[in-house]
Design brief:
single chain, alpha/beta, 13-stranded mixed sheet
Amino acid sequence: MNDLKKLKESVENKTAESFETEYEVVLPGLDESVVREISRVKEEPDWMLQMRLKSLEVFQRSKDPGFGPSLDEIDYDSVVAYAKPGARKARNWDEVPEEIKEAFDRLGIPEAERRVLAGVEAQLDSEVVYSHVRKVLDRLGIIFTNMETAIKEYPELVKKHFMKLVPPSDHKFAALHGALWSGGTFLYVPKGVKVPMPLQSFFMVNLPSMGQFEHTIIILDEGAQATYIEGCSAPLYGVHNLHAGVVEVYVKKGAHLKYLTLQNWSKSVFNMETKRAIVDEGGFMEWISASFGSYKSMVYPSVILRGEGATANVISVSLVGKGQHIDAGTKVYHLAPRTSSTISSKGISMGGGWGVFRALLRIGKGAKDSRSSVECTSVMLDDHSRSDTIPIIEVHEPLSDVGHEATIGRISDEEIFYLMSRGLTEIEARTLIVRGFMEPVIEELPLEYAIEISRLITMEIESSIG
């Protein structure tokens, strides 16, 4: 309560401090005046303001989801809708203020950029404070920028795709996002272009009671290829933070996108993110995600296979610890012939955490010769944690092939004892098992991210064992 009181007092003075970073803050709460102020500060076109106001109307009459963790603790009146760090936007890492560097050093941005020579977008709370796009991207006609810049420089392209896959009417948090969105990434890859390096974005919540609502749009034109890496983090506060980002992905004919997410939210964050992709003929969409932290989560990346021969591959791992309730999963819709999908989920519960995996697979009528495989494996590292799997499979086309397998088990004391008898400590033994369990995701990540996951696993296990 002291943190919240301090925040409200600082907001009244139009600035707030966190990690010694000054902010320009829009007042807490959610009403039309706040929405209009965000739009005014950003100097948005009228169509965006009208969309925000319509989204606010939808949110005000929406209810919480009828499933998943309880969200009663979210206090919308105290959520800070928008906070702009007191730093000008930089295009060179040397120009970024030291206090912001310190925050992002925890995510490894400079190291990641040096190692994989990638373009980087970094967002602290509501605004992108560091942006570096290599000249080679410009030469190839690739657009990789923040959403505010994209609206000003590519208005028609943004308007055509913004909240078309995830409309405000989709659910309560989509409507909230539509009203308050700020920051995020815009990526467009022209026809036939292969992006020569992974592109990366980092999002960090740095302010108590901050709501972060970044919006990401990725468009791969016909035959284009790209790898996009997203990192998310937040420090731990005595009050809750709310994250309700939206990701919309458009994969055109024959295009190929690999989207990797590493989320390391603190245990004070409600994570209500919505991710959705639509794939045309012969296109390939791959979601790969590793989820750590957060207090409560409801995240279900989805893929709509609307073109013949389109393919989806969804791999996810989650680590749920003490005091956490993570409700996550995948949705895949087969709407065209000869489409295929693979869904693989691995969940680990420990320290009394509760992990839930939900899958929705729908084979639409007319999606002949489509194939799908759903595999869910959950492991509990103790006898007071919980893990559930709730798959829903709807097959409306008899000429299709669907397989499903689900396994839930507990690591036995005998397995831990065996490894300890070979010289490992208990923490080392449990960490080794978890790392092996997460291997399908870890092997897809660049080296520095794989190292980061290994470190996070060790920290979480140390915390659960005490």
